[in-house]
Amino acid sequence: MKFGVVTFPGSNCDYDTYAAARYILNEEVEFLWHLDTDLKGSDVVILPGGFSYGDYLRTGAIARFSPIVKEVIKFAREGGTVWGICNGFQILLEAGLLPGAMLRNKGLRFICKHVNIRVESVGNRLTAGLDPGQVLHIPIAHSDGNYYDYPERIEELKRNDQVVFRYCDAGGNIIPESNPNGSVDNIAGICNRDKNVFGMMPHPERAVENVLNSTDGLKLFESIRSYYSRRAAV
Amino acid sequence: MLSAKVTVVFKDGVLDPQGKTIFNALQDLGYNSVRSVSTGKVFNLRLDKSDKQEAERELNEICQKLLANPVIEDYRIEVEQ
Question: How far is A101 from chain B (nearest CA, A)?
């Protein structure tokens, strides 16, 4: 299988994401430039973290109009796997591929630390290889990670099993103290209704080797790979 | 040529942490008459158009598409000759 990692002006997690998929997972990876109009045969397109276009106007607001994102939108509508991490999540929200919006963190600060997130749904290719309720130790690094949507749309997310991760404590309890940024219902990651587009604020590519203090992020990469190897076997 | 001012503000009920922080600072400074503070953005645009209605129509589209995020923000358009 093949991953594509998009680089926007201002992306800064593109190389980490590339390295996780290429050298830790040992899969094929291509960099995709923001001006490209071809996904180079990628099965999974990752929009990595960073500050695309300087975060001007709103996070992700300018990136969503770049040529590569037009292709990503088409790819997503055809059922391709799209995975937005941090700034990538913000871009997917602005592009309308995922519902909701990001607000500034409740405490107004940039937060960079390891957090615990609980796997809320395993009914999708990103978490199919994990256990429901499993706690992952993965770092966050953002100023605008306060996920927001109208209460009725949050209810809809839950009804459709679209909430993938929620911030929790080490024991897996969803409590206000484990919510780093004020996100509605401690939401850390979601997917679209068709379950092929994913957005999450934590950085799994920063948790793929023991030297990084956690390998929990690698489990998500592995889950996606199993999905594609099962598909190839059919 | 027409000049336009677009003001983008948070919708009612959407958390505005910067507004809240500024409010707290004003309370600390003793401005107890201040009851609330909300923040927003102002965009000044010049358009190569002569028809005010046509300019408003285009600005509306610009706001929907780019300047405001309709999930969390409202906007106001003022066009001047």
Answer: 6
In terms of residue numbers, what domain contains B60? 2-80
Between positions 5 and 64 of B, the ones with CB within 8 A of A are 14-15, 17-18, 21
Q: Which CATH entry fits the domain spanning A2-233: 3.30.1390.20, 3.90.380.10, 3.30.420.10, 3.40.50.880? A: 3.40.50.880
pLDDT over 80 at B76, yes or no: yes
Q: Where are the domains of chain A?
A: 2-233
Residue A105 contacts B, CB cutoff 8 Å: yes
- Segment A52-94, tens digit of pLDDT: 999 999 999 999 999 999 999 999 999 999 999 999 999 999 9
- Residues of A forming the active site: 86, 203, 205
ipTM of the complex: 0.87
Are the C-beta atoms of residues A42 and A35 closer than 8 Å to each other?
no
Q: Rounding to the nearest 10 degrees, give the CA dihedral for residues A127, A132, A135, A139.
A: 30
Number of domains within chain B: 1
